[in-house]
């Protein structure tokens, strides 16, 4: 009967040696570099605020957004990222509010122009059908 030898602990996988190196020539230490993840700076929405100020300045919300954007940029330059984030988010919400109000006003103007056109067309048609009609008696 043949005896089975205990192979002992499991050996780690091996790497073939490059030409010209022996076991003593291999480095035995491993260096692991840990990098901290780079966090992008908070956004200040300056370009958006500038466009809102120039093109959609309803109730001065665009100007207020521009002020908060500049404050956010100043805080970012000083290294106060929490203050920059706060001012930047305020500028963002002011820009969104100004744009929503502008969209509402544009829809309102379109509706008023359309209804005014319809009323004028009805008056013109009524005068064409009844030329003697001067007004209500």
Question: How would you describe the overall organization of this protein?
Answer:
The protein is elongated and about 125 Å long. With 137 residues, it is mostly helical. Helix 1 (46-55) runs antiparallel to helix 2 (61-78) and helix 2 (61-78) packs antiparallel against helix 3. The chain contains three helices and no strands. It comes from Coturnix japonica (Japanese quail). This is Dispanin subfamily A member 2b-like. Pfam families: CD225. It is found in: Membrane.
Q: Percent of residues in helical segments?
A: 55-70%
Q: Strand-and-helix sequence, N→C?
A: HHH
State the total count of DSSP E strands: 0
The profile of the biggest β sheet is: none
State mean pLDDT (0 to 100 scale): 83
Shape, please? elongated
Instruction: Please compute the radius of gyration using only Cα atoms.
Output: 38 Å
Structural class designation: mainly alpha
Estimate the strand proportion. Answer: under 5%
Q: Alpha-carbon distance between the termini?
A: 131 Å
Give unreliable regions as ranges. Answer: none
Our count of helices gives 3
């Amino acid at each position: 009967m043949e005896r089975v030898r205990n192979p002992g602990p499991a050996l780690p996988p091996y790497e073939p040696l490059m030409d010209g190196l022996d076991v003593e020539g291999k480095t035995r230490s491993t260096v692991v570099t840990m990098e901290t993840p780079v966090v992008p700076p908070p956004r200040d929405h300056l370009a958006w605020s500038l466009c809102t100020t120039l093109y959609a300045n309803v109730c001065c919300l665009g100007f207020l957004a521009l002020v908060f954007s500049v404050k956010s940029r100043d805080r970012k330059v000083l290294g106060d990222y929490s203050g920059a984030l706060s001012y930047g988010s305020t500028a963002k919400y002011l820009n969104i509010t100004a744009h929503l109000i502008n969209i509402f006003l544009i829809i309102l103007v379109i509706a008023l122009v359309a209804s005014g056109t319809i009323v004028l067309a009805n008056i013109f048609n009524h005068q064409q059908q009844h030329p003697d009609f001067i007004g209500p008696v």
